[in-house]
Amino acid sequence: xxxxxxxxxxxxxxxxxxxxxxxxxxxxxxxxxxxxxxxxxxxxxxxxxxxxxxxxxxxxxxxxxxxxxxxxxxxxxxxxxxxxxxxxxxxxxxxxxxxxxxxxxxxxxxxxxxxxxxx
Length: 119
Description:
The chain is an all-beta fold and 119 residues long. The protein has strands spanning 3-7, 10-12, 18-25, 31-39, 46-52, 57-59, 67-72, 77-82, 91-100, 105-109, 113-117.
């Protein structure tokens, strides 16, 4: 019954900024990593940024220095601050929560939010 709800996407000019949010609804337990993926038309889905339970972060080379991932464990929410946006950042962005319980491995995905960077 856990669902991830994304928000914050939209149309922005090159050089602009957007902040994506992804919040889990329902009870959640056992998540140890959160991340953001994106998929552009005709391309494979790629990992953009991730953050572990210890707040260790990792970024794709293409977004280093421009994007920042953060999490609020109390709110079961992960954020992606995107600055200095470029047209090549245009894609559908998906959040992802991963972890495990004694019964099963966990892998939850958001519905996706469109980010379009265009002048």
